[in-house]
User: Which sequence fits this backbone?
């Protein structure tokens, strides 16, 4: 395993962790924990007590817990940014002539820079809902690009992988449709969450279940698209695991894991609708969606490799 | 493989534990300081029933001082109070109290008419009256609000009182932004059990 592969693996794992931390900031309501950007209360290290607060900042804005939650997201983001930069440098060092590895990593680096800038827009616009959704969406695309590059690098070192496997060549569109449906499903999910928050401000009735009912169309679209995603994933599983010849263990496990995680998503979704909007469940509901996207990327990359071997 | 799954599950459980700790910490970091206890008093409601500071126990109360014939800011305050009264319909533990600063005119009967005219049809919103000196004393010394020129010179504050009968915060009863803050604080107190 060369240095690029080690780094791409670590970077992908850390990016996943960053998505989790970002979601945590959202459910903890710590998005405005630091009212300025990139500094926090005009300091590089946020204040730990009120008397460290600069004079020109209103003390009413200061909440030490929220400030440190938001600050750890920024620190972690900076770390991941650094890791992606190193991964990009390594990609060009080891795979200068292999665009299918260096291009996605470069794209991930570019999107990461946009993510940093979006972070500042979020603070400037006091958490504009569309920007929050875009912030998450770009993170998901970054993680998919990293997974793809890491797997392609693995195949370069293990050219025999997927050589024995024969999958239907007609599935290409299915991966595309599934990925887009999944990304769209995440957008709908954030709309539900954002809508709930807005309605809670206008209708302080504490019962979230009642507010969920008021959301109507978004909720149903989220459910219907969820069913479609389940159908496509089941279809892919059937063709990649059951109908194929010698599916690799990676392919079987990934396809099965996708179905398992979708089941978990349905359970978590139902808990949110029928029991209570529990922040921790909300957080995992979003995070598991990012895993599914990563697994679909692995599924596609493996399928793509087998097609190339086949040719 | 099974070992990996177990390690994975352990890691995820730890992440979940960590996250729920952070969420808990974040929720409890939002504090509304305690100002002081509401002192003892004994007034009468629009239905002629006695109402003392004990009625604040186990309820979250929004309280204001007003008078029914007030031409100035009172209609805005009453309007804001009506919105709260309607929106918190399903939350039994939230109650509203309006104390008249013009008891010579605002008898129980007048207060009752005023309540009916504003759609108050249950005990969640009480209108209180007493003699002027007692009201003045409660307003000035109990709630630390201006009470030298009653009824005209009354304060336009809404007061948030918690389940233990303690004053937690004051809001401008004529101001939309303050009402938004009040709702946020009210929801916070409702959830805080």
Assistant:
């Amino acid at each position: 395993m060369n240095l690029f592969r080690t780094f791409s693996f670590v970077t992908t794992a850390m990016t996943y962790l960053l998505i989790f931390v970002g979601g945590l900031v959202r459910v903890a309501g710590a998005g405005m924990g630091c009212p300025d950007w990139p500094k926090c209360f005009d300091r590089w290290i946020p204040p730990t007590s009120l008397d460290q607060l600069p004079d020109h900042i209103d003390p009413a804005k200061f909440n030490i817990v929220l400030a440190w939650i938001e600050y750890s997201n920024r620190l972690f983001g900076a770390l991941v940014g650094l890791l992606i930069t190193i991964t990009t440098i390594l990609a060009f060092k080891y795979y200068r002539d292999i665009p299918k590895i260096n291009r996605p990593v470069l794209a991930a680096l570019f999107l990461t820079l946009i993510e940093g800038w979006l972070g500042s827009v979020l603070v400037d616009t006091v958490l504009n809902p569309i920007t929050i959704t875009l912030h998450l969406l770009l993170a998901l695309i970054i993680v998919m690009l990293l997974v793809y590059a890491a797997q392609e690098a693995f195949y370069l070192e293990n050219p025999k992988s997927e050589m024995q496997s024969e999958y239907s060549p007609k599935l290409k569109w299915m991966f595309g449709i599934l990925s887009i449906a999944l990304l769209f499903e995440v957008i709908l999910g954030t709309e539900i969450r954002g809508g709930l928050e807005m309605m809670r401000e206008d209708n302080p009735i504490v019962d979230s279940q009642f507010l969920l009912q008021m959301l109507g169309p978004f909720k149903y679209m989220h459910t219907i698209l969820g069913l479609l995603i389940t159908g496509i994933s089941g279809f892919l599983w059937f063709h990649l695991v059951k109908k194929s010849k010698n599916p690799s263990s990676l392919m079987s496990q990934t396809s099965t894991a996708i179905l398992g995680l979708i089941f978990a998503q349905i359970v978590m979704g139902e808990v949110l609708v029928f029991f209570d909007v529990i922040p921790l469940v909300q957080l995992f509901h979003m995070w598991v969606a990012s895993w599914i996207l990563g697994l679909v990327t692995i599924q596609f990359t493996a399928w793509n490799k087998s097609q190339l071997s086949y040719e | 493989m099974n070992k990996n799954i177990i390690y994975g599950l352990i890691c995820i459980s730890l992440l979940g534990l960590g996250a729920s700790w952070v969420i808990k910490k974040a929720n409890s970091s939002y504090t509304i300081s305690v100002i002081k206890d509401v002192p003892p008093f004994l007034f009468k409601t629009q239905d002629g029933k006695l109402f003392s500071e004990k009625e604040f126990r186990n309820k979250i109360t929004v309280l204001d001082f007003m008078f029914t014939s007030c031409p100035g800011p009172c209609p805005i305050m009453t309007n804001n109070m009506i919105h709260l009264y309607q929106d918190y319909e399903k939350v039994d533990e939230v109650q509203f109290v309006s104390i008249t600063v013009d008891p010579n005119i605002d008898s129980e009967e007048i207060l009752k008419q005023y309540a009916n005219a504003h759609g108050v049809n249950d005990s969640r919103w009480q209108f209180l009256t007493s003699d002027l000196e007692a009201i003045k004393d409660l307003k000035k010394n109990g709630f630390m609000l201006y009470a030298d020129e009653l009824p005209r010179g009354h304060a336009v504050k809404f007061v948030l009182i918690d389940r233990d009968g303690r004053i937690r915060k004051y809001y401008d009863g004529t101001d939309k932004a303050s009402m938004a803050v009040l709702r946020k604080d009210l929801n916070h107190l409702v959830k805080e059990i």
